[in-house]
# Entry
Amino acid sequence: MFFDTHAHLNAEQYNEDLQEVIDRAQNEGISNIVVVGFDRPTIEKAMELTEKYDFIYASVGWHPVDAIDMTEDDLQWIEELSSHPKVVALGEMGLDYYWDKSPKDIQQEVFRKQIRLAKKVKLPIVIHNREATADIVEILKEEGAGEVGGIMHCFSGSPEIAKECVDMNFFISLGGPVTFKNAKKPKEVADVIPLEKLLIETDCPYLTPHPFRGKRNEPSYVKFVAEQIAEIKGLSVEEVAQATTENAKKLFGIN
# Structure
């Protein structure tokens, strides 16, 4: 059984065939999915999905690209949602220096506020990082984020940074890029990080793994990520599936 720890089934790309996508996931042995909401509309849809499907959980937070739009009311709303039994994490949150919609200082302020909220409500955090690794690591340390830990989502950094994050009580989550032929770093990370600190995800509808690269991603494809990790580590797919599922359930507090 596979656990897709980061999916966007709340995205418009699934408006036409969401039920078929979910059926395929279940048929392929996907036992659990965390749907990630990162602004008002996507959080609302994530919560709707948790109400409808018993194996779907939610993570709620505010995306760094949209940090400039987040109000105190939004933060208060996220805090209220955090007590919902199927909200298992806060995020995705973090820094994104690739897009320039939100100034860096505002991104950092919103990131810090969400870490502080996570510590208050005692939930792990899901980290989005794009071209901002040094600042992310620094803020996680300064804010004592290791107290709640969490996930370095779709990790694309070096093995050295991965180890630093593991030391701060974070899991390293690998997605479709680990299956790409030219993706050296994710493969190195899969090799050096112990299985008990790894998670798998799709980040669907994005980052579709080989052999479907270029098409829309979906949770049923998370098995290709597990297969690649198994190959790199010289393990069976079943071992990777079992370990990463246990890791996710432990982190999210799912029995």
